[in-house]
Write a structure and sequence with these properties.
Strand order of the largest sheet: 3-2-1-4-5-6
Largest sheet: 6 strands, mixed
Number of helices: 37
Shape: globular
Number of strands: 24
Strand content: 5-15%
Helix content: 40-55%
Mean pLDDT: 88
Radius of gyration: 30 Å
Distance between the termini: 27 Å
Length: 935
């Protein structure tokens, strides 16, 4: 289930809707301006921001010039009245409001907002997003999928409506969402002046599609129709096909989805204040820019310096865990908030600050550097805070000898285990200081990680946390160094006085967030999880990131050349099979060759621009029957492998160390699992022989080392047996049986030793599908069987494992009562949609409720194993190091003299990471000269 939520708003559709919603009683301000459209649009946007928890957002508008549909059919939308003057006035204001919310506006010439949203939706879905298309327009239903939803804003108090595949099909009376296009092609659309076939309405269209599936098939069998209906269908056949084309949303608009561009940012208070003042939006200004419901800094509890873990006098809770904190604009900022920020730039001032820090039981610190890669950047400065409202900034010299000497002055404070250390993403600062000879010791209080435990599905960056919980708007780094790009400065290029205020503010605000989060972490029952798992893990990950891993650049370069030669040979073969040369990177040309020239049957709808779709799913379906398609698909895969991995990995080698240093993300996945970037280890391909070879590039430090890989065997299935307590499943694991064969024996009622290969495959698919909440429809697609057969398989599965069904039902029921689910170690995940009126949102929450305790417990286990292994390695001063964590696997750079010593330690700690389990935990281990050999 995706944790990233992208909301795409159809700007024009929402503006028109808002305007006509007030048409009988328009909202007119003292200047005589009709503000209906602006008011309605802003209310819709604000309601969405407050209640739907988007992580990414954009607004699409129609271009001012005609689109390709007007070229295709001149009367397209010709029946519409000229744009009302009030809407013409409203649109520039709406654009200013959108910009005031710091939301990107998207517009592409020749394409409507529908097409832009359709294209971005499909691209975002492919990147793991849940996408919500915010619009009242019905034609968007054709785009809905497992992760793309139609979001219809509330109207006249009837609440919002979220429609998924099931709701769309029920609404239209169709079997598949892509039939929305056929419905519109048959019945037409008076709003857009799409003609359809005269005399065919919604009910008739649905009946015809139930029998003939598509317009094309209906026309091919029109002879089976009778009377007037037959006459109309045959007479208006071309018009029906044209109408279908007009109604088809183009998902191949020349625009690229860049997730970073659409991340929610704090609003621009000044810009919104200005436009709201012009429009006389007093109520909206108060609601959006006013005090709001966020907790006030004055109410933040303090933890006395004399008692680091002492009980605060008063605990002010976070926004209810079952409901999101209100998205509100910060009232406070550096210019209107009392503060004392000191520049510490002389030996005397250094000594005074060091003395002050040495007296504390907890200090907050932050580093300013020349870049975001802690293994490549240099220190520019350090900031400290020991109380709210006061902070200190220490500039660090550019000369590295002098820089090391200055940092050494603070070494005693940093390495004092009795002084707790507060930070925001403290792992970065810990790695940074390692390069300056400092090991940061003492208990870590990372506000980013603390918030992640309390609200795992929200954002955790300091700007967001400060605005949400402290009502304080921080100075954004781009105000100092500019936006990303070749002209961006580094902190070293900025005047020290400006850096002082920015850096000191970071330390000050982080300290305030710590004061706020610590008592709430305890109140939520999460302090123990933080202290035992997440806090000690920070040091483990910091050590792994600094250590990095060696890669064989020569192998990658040679393999890239080898595959490039294969790619060239494949090109020649494809051209020979096709009988001509064409651009293999062009989907349009591939489609024309395959389906026009070669006359391969095309069973799917074309794109909006009339092109054949040649996506991987369709090509794979054809590849078994047509060698040319298989060769094109292989060419595509090898080309991507070269560009994404073989050619990219060498560029990631750190020039300082000659190694790759992947960054491990501790606060991304709501389940508790780790992820990584630069490179993304989870995405390194292993399913194809060529892709698996990428692992061969990961090698030991030198000839004295080997790579050692250890991974959990079927950990999630073992944990679902443990958590559910199902006796049959537990028995299978306790006997050491192949769980998929054991499942097949029960489901198909055959002896264990007589299970056939296909039966085991189906049982394996069901085993993993159940964990992820797949229903009969999804299972039927995976196994290529009828839905009724898939449902029977699921029914037999639950009869075989009744304890599992009981667990699933009880977990959902308990989640409804408490609003959250927990792992065996107490990690929480809140389920805000568990009682949603939307069946789609509710069923998604139910799947998460069932899956999270399993995935989350697996995450907790491997984290505990990592902590214990790291500590033992340090205590025994092993030369071997833990270097990678991927899925359920740990990879070690193991010294040959230590391998036989560390293998039982690793296995023991992984197997017993969570003591007292009934189910046996198995760990597989391998070693070799590279990761592929060790895996």
């Amino acid at each position: 289930m995706s944790e990233k939520k992208l909301f795409l708003l159809d700007g024009h559709a929402l503006v028109y809707r808002a305007h006509f919603a007030f048409i009988t009683r328009p909202l007119i301000n003292s200047k005589g301006v009709n503000t209906s459209a602006m008011t309605g649009f802003t209310n819709t946007l604000w309601d969405l921001m407050q209640n739907q928890n988007p992580t990414h957002i954009a607004v699409a508008f129609d271009p001012k010039t005609p689109t390709f549909r007007h070229e295709m059919y001149e009367p397209y939308k010709a029946n519409r009245e000229e744009q009302p003057e009030d809407i013409a006035v409203a649109l520039p204001y709406v654009e200013r409001i959108v910009k005031g919310f710091n939301i990107p506006i998207v517009m592409v010439d020749n394409y409507e907002a529908d097409d832009v949203i359709g294209t971005l939706s499909k691209q975002a879905e492919a990147e793991g997003f849940q996408v919500y298309m915010v619009t009242p327009d019905k034609d968007y239903g054709q785009l809905v999928s497992e992760n793309i939803f139609l979001y219809k804003p509330s109207r006249q108090g009837n609440g919002i409506e979220i429609q998924g595949e099931k709701e769309i099909c029920e609404k239209w009376g169709i079997q598949r969402v892509d039939q929305v296009i056929d419905m519109l092609g048959l019945m037409g659309d008076s709003v857009d002046n799409i003609p359809g076939i005269p005399g065919i309405g919604e009910k008739t269209a649905a009946k015809l599609l139930a029998q003939y599936d598509t317009i094309e098939n209906l026309l091919a069998h029109s002879g089976e129709l009778k009377g007037k209906q037959k006459e109309r269908v045959e007479e208006f056949a071309e018009q029906a096909l044209l109408s279908k084309k007009l109604a088809t949303i183009d998902i191949d608009v020349p625009i690229r989805f860049d997730a970073e561009t659409y991340i929610i940012d704090p609003v621009n208070r000044e810009a919104l204040t200005e436009v709201f003042k012009e429009l006389e939006f007093r109520s909206l200004a108060h609601k959006i820019l006013g005090s709001g419901d966020s907790p006030k800094p004055a109410a933040v509890p303090t933890v006395k310096q004399g008692n680091l873990f002492g009980e605060p006098e008063k605990v002010v809770p976070l926004a209810k865990s079952s409901s999101l904190p209100k998205h509100s604009v910060a009232d406070k900022h550096l210019g209107n908030t009392e503060h004392q920020y000191h520049l510490v730039n002389t030996p005397e001032k250094w000594a005074d600050l060091i003395a002050l820090l040495g007296k504390q039981q907890v200090i907050c610190f932050d580093t300013e550097t020349t870049g975001i890669d802690a293994n490549a950047a240099e220190l520019v400065g350090m900031s400290f805070a020991v109380s709210s409202g006061e902070a200190y900034y220490v500039p660090v010299p550019e000369d590295q000898d002098a820089a090391h000497a200055l940092v050494a002055e603070f070494k005693a404070v940093f390495e004092n285990e009795k002084i707790g250390k507060i930070g925001q993403n403290i792992k970065y600062d810990v790695i940074m200081l390692k390069w300056y000879g400092v090991e940061v010791k003492g208990h870590y209080f990372d506000t980013m990680v603390m918030h992640y435990l309390m609200e795992p599905e929200l954002r955790h960056n300091m700007d967001y946390l400060s605005e949400t919980y402290l009502k304080y708007r921080t100075v954004h780094i781009e105000a100092l160094i500019g936006k990303k790009g070749k002209n961006q400065l580094t902190m070293r290029d900025v005047a020290v006085e400006r850096v002082k205020d920015y850096a000191a503010e970071d330390a000050d605000i982080t300290y305030q967030l710590y004061e706020f989060f610590l008592p709430n972490l305890e109140k939520e029952g999460l302090l123990d999880l933080y202290d035992k798992v997440e806090e000690p893990l920070i040091n483990v990950l910091a050590a792994m990131e600094k250590e990095g891993i060696n890669i064989n650049v020569e192998f990658l370069n040679n393999y890239s050349k080898e595959l490039s030669e294969q790619i060239i040979e494949l090109e020649k073969k494809v051209y020979e099979e096709a009988g001509e040369k064409f651009n293999l990177a062009s989907p349009k040309q591939i489609g024309e060759i395959l389906f026009d020239k070669m006359e391969i049957p095309y069973r799917w709808r074309k794109t909006k621009t009339g092109q054949y779709s040649t996506d991987e799913e369709k090509m794979t379906e054809l590849s078994g029957e047509y060698p040319l398609v298989a060769d094109i698909l292989r060419h595509r895969g090898l080309t991507k492998l070269c560009s994404t991995y073989l050619d990219a990995l060498p560029r990631m080698v750190n020039p300082r160390t000659g190694r790759i240093h992947s960054s491990f993300n501790q606060t991304i996945a709501a389940t508790g699992r780790l992820s990584s970037r630069d490179p993304n280890l989870q995405n390194i391909p292993v399913r194809t022989p060529e892709g698996a070879q990428v692992r061969k590039a990961f090698i030991p430090r030198d000839e004295n080392y080997l790579l050692l890989a250890a991974d959990y065997s079927q950990i999630e299935l073992r944990l679902i047996a443990e958590i559910s307590g199902d006796e049959a499943m537990l028995e299978a694991f306790q006997k050491g049986q192949d769980i998929h064969r054991a499942t097949a024996a029960r489901v198909f009622d055959v002896p264990y030793d007589e299970v056939e290969r296909e039966q085991r495959y189906r049982a394996k698919t069901v085993n993993f599908s159940i964990i992820y909440g797949a229903g009969a429809t999804n299972l039927s697609r995976q196994l290529n069987i009828k839905r009724t057969e898939a449902q029977e398989l699921i029914n037999n599965y639950f009869k075989s494992y009744p304890g599992l069904k009981k667990y699933m039902d009880e977990t959902v029921e308990n989640a409804r009562k408490s609003g959250y689910v927990t792992t065996l170690m107490g990690r929480k995940r809140y389920l805000r949609d568990i009682d949603s009126k939307s069946s789609l949102a509710r069923s998604n929450a139910e799947r998460i409720a069932i899956n999270t305790p399993i995935q989350g417990t697996a995450a907790d286990m491997i984290k505990m194993a990592m902590i214990h292994i790291h500590n033992i390695f340090q205590e025994k001063d092993f030369r071997s190091k833990m270097v990678l964590q991927v899925h359920d696997e740990l990879v070690f750079d193991a010294h040959k003299d230590e391998i036989e010593t560390i293998k039982p330690i690793i296995e023991e700690q992984m197997k017993n990471a969570l003591p007292g389990l009934k189910v046996p935990i198995l760990v597989g281990m391998g070693q070799g000269e590279d990761w592929l050999e060790a895996h």
